[in-house]
Amino acid sequence: MKLFGKSAQRPWRKVEIRNSKFERIASRRAFVLIEVMIGVFIFAIGVLALGRCVGNCVGAEAARQESERARRALDNRMAEIEAGEIPVDKARSDDLGDAFPGMTIKQSRIPVAAKDEKGGQILGLYEVDIEVDWNSQNEPESKAISFYVLRSQ
Asked: What residues pair up with 139 in beta bridges, in sequence order?
């Protein structure tokens, strides 16, 4: 009977050991699955954040290029005024056309009351204000410059 009793207990213990071992393995697999899911979630958040950063960089570069074009338009107009190609006798507003699409330039002048070293009035001295307006991403933008011009009468 002892033999019969031992052999009856052993298979039962092996089955119990197998079941507990299976439960441990299943528990480890479930834990690994949760770790992988959390890792993928964190990676996805990082990719989304990186995508947003790239989008911001692209938008900033476009804004920089538009600002650079406006500065170039202001420099061109200032050079034209200094060369005497465009008169400063009256205020004017022009569409810049194909060279600077979507940009409008405004020009105005203010006579400057200045005196020379002998106390005499300097005639023909003007402060010229130039402003470029454009729309960037449906928002109005502008850039301005102010300088002095001496026109002989």
From this structure: 136
Token pair for 94: 């022009």
The boundaries of the domain holding residue 46 are 2-150
Euclidean distance between CA atoms 145 and 138, whole angstroms = 23
Q: Which residues contact 124 (CB under 8 A, 6 or more apart)?
A: 150, 151, 152, 153
Q: Which pairing describes strands 121-122 and 92-95: parallel, antiparallel, or unpaired? A: unpaired
Q: What is the chain's length?
A: 153
pLDDT in tens, 108-146: 999 988 888 888 888 889 999 999 999 988 889 999 999
Local structure of residue 127 (DSSP, 8 states):
E
**Dist. CA 105–CA 78, nearest whole Å:** 11
Average pLDDT, whole number, for the chain? 84
Q: Can you name the residues that pair with 149 across neighbouring β-strands?
A: 126
- pLDDT for residue 22: 61
Residue 91 phi/psi, 5-degree rounding, is -75, 145
Question: 80-94: per-residue pLDDT in tens?
Answer: 999 888 888 889 998
Contact 131, 101 (CB under 8 A): no
Quote the pTM value: 0.65
